[in-house]
Write a structure and sequence with these properties.
The protein is an alpha+beta fold. Helix content is 48%, strand content 17%. The radius of gyration is 35 Å and the shape is extended.
């Protein structure tokens, strides 16, 4: 992993913890002082003779590129050029030389550094007058990790039990989803109703010049006010009653405009309306036949009867639960492997200072760091260190094929959220390609690919204790953690 000398965002502190530097040859004297296991000071000794020639060349170039007033390019006296350009040029030259020497030392000694080197408070130099200068930098070092994965390390893997009730609920949902609207005598909450509406005045009479809607669509299912929605349940064609569209829709202007058939600018109406029901459509559930089986399982399914269909649905639910089980494995693996790594010391004061300086550079209004933030950062950092170490030990390398697979799975999961459980492979691949064109989605997919490869290798290296538990027990695993 690499770092650049320029200031970078705070996020690499968590994502690219270990910095190794690649730069040109070092010419100055650099010394290293280990303060403790995770703190050190690097001193770069500089003599004026180390940079004087470079400063002179740079100042001369400035005289050509930016001639002083009254002089032709390159003709101003050296003393005058030094007076105008010397301080800034000297600062730039020394900064480059010291930075190069510092990072060369880090690279050549394979120092695992957290964050970036920070100027030591004891550094006091006058680059325009001192003949010899000592630039000191504080380093935060990654702690040494000694952890070997083996079959003596036990990590649980929870399979979620697929119950008959879960199968029944899934089938009921799909029968409604794939059902058809037919004429109904009595409405329920899922019904779609059509009717006429007349705006009322404060006395409950028809409002003169009020809004009149000849035919509008009303669905209690989408109303946000339960009391208003209840007025549309159990009614018949011809029934007339009063309701308040504004309450029913929670003041949503777009919904009101559609229901009242008016422009949005005129839709913020809080009056009651008398509605007359003229038509009721109810959802007729899909029949349990081969057409329905194909609608749920895909057109290529060979399922012919209800028993085989129920078994296929059970398997489908089981596959849908796998991502939840896999994620839970990562939670438990992270906890257990961090514990196995032991108490990893961190350069805490250095990291607090590093975070505060970054916030100042980003011009954050609040540069203070709370104890809660610090503890959360330290927890994330310790795991990242363990994960990076283990990834190197396991020889984790992510190839293009891994990213393509992660993109395919990511697309499948997204389509499933929209109720498309058995999308054709071509459709999934097209969706995956679209995701890869989006910067944020592509970054998330690449992270998934790394995690998938890492945790798959961890599974192979440790002992995985598989357990089948109910969905209620599965949820309680997270509840117990929140209580701690």
């Amino acid at each position: 992993m690499c770092i650049v000398l320029k200031v970078v965002p705070l996020q690499p502190l968590f994502e690219n913890i270990i910095y190794l530097i690649d730069n040109t040859n070092q010419v100055m004297n650099v010394s290293f002082e280990q303060i403790d296991a995770v703190n050190a000071i690097v001193t770069v000794d500089v003599k004026r003779e180390d940079f004087a020639a470079d400063v002179a060349k740079e100042v001369a170039k400035m005289g050509v590129k930016h001639p002083l007033k009254g002089f032709r390019p390159g003709k101003a006296p050296k003393s005058l050029l030094m007076k105008f350009y010397g301080p800034s040029v000297t600062a730039d030259v020394v900064d480059r030389m010291v930075g190069r020497a510092l990072y060369d030392h880090i690279r050549e000694n394979n120092l695992h550094v957290l964050g970036e080197p920070l100027p030591n408070e004891d550094t006091k130099v006058d680059i325009m007058n001192d003949e010899e200068m000592a630039f000191k930098f504080d380093l935060g070092l990654a702690p040494a990790i000694e952890l070997k994965l083996n079959k003596r390390i036990n990590v649980p893997y929870y399979n979620i039990e697929v119950t008959d009730q879960m199968v029944d609920d899934a089938i009921a949902h799909d029968r409604k989803r794939l059902g058809t609207l037919v004429d109904g005598e009595v409405s329920d909450k899922e019904s779609m109703l059509r009717g006429s509406m007349i705006e009322l005045d404060e006395e409950g009479n028809d409002k003169q010049d009020g809004i009149k809607v000849e035919r509008t669509v009303i669905s209690p299912r989408y109303m946000v006010d339960d009391d208003e929605a209840a007025k549309f349940v159990g009614v018949k064609v011809g029934d007339t009653f009063v309701f308040n569209p504004h309450k029913a829709n929670g003041g949503n202007i777009a919904e009101l405009a559609a229901m009242l058939n008016v422009d949005r600018k005129e839709a913020d109406v809080k009056s009651d309306f008398r509605v007359t029901i003229e038509e009721i459509k109810v959802n007729q559930e899909a029949e349990m036949n081969e057409e329905f089986f194909k609608g749920v399982l895909g057109t290529e399914t060979e399922v012919k009867d209800e028993a085989a269909f129920r078994e296929a649905v059970r398997e489908m639910i089981g596959r849908a639960n796998v991502p939840e089980s896999n994620y839970r494995f990562t939670v438990d693996a992270q906890r257990i492997l961090t514990e196995k790594a032991g108490e990893l010391p961190l350069p805490e004061e250095f990291l607090k200072r590093f975070l505060k300086l970054r916030r100042e550079q980003d011009e954050k209004e609040n540069t203070e760091v709370t104890d809660e933030e610090i503890q959360r950062m330290f927890k994330q950092l310790r795991w990242q260190l363990v994960k990076d170490y283990l990834a190197q030990e396991l020889g984790i390398k992510v190839e293009k094929e891994d990213i393509d697979t992660a993109a395919f799975i990511f697309a499948q999961e997204q389509l499933s959220q929209y109720g498309i459980y058995n999308a054709p492979e071509d459709l999934v691949r097209q969706q995956a390609e679209r995701f890869m064109q989006d910067d944020r989605a592509r970054e998330a997919i690449q992270e998934h690919a790394i995690d998938n490869k890492f945790y798959a290798a961890v599974k192979e290296a440790v002992k995985v204790n598989e357990k089948t538990i109910s969905v209620e027990e599965f949820r309680k695993l997270y509840e117990k953690e929140e209580e701690k």
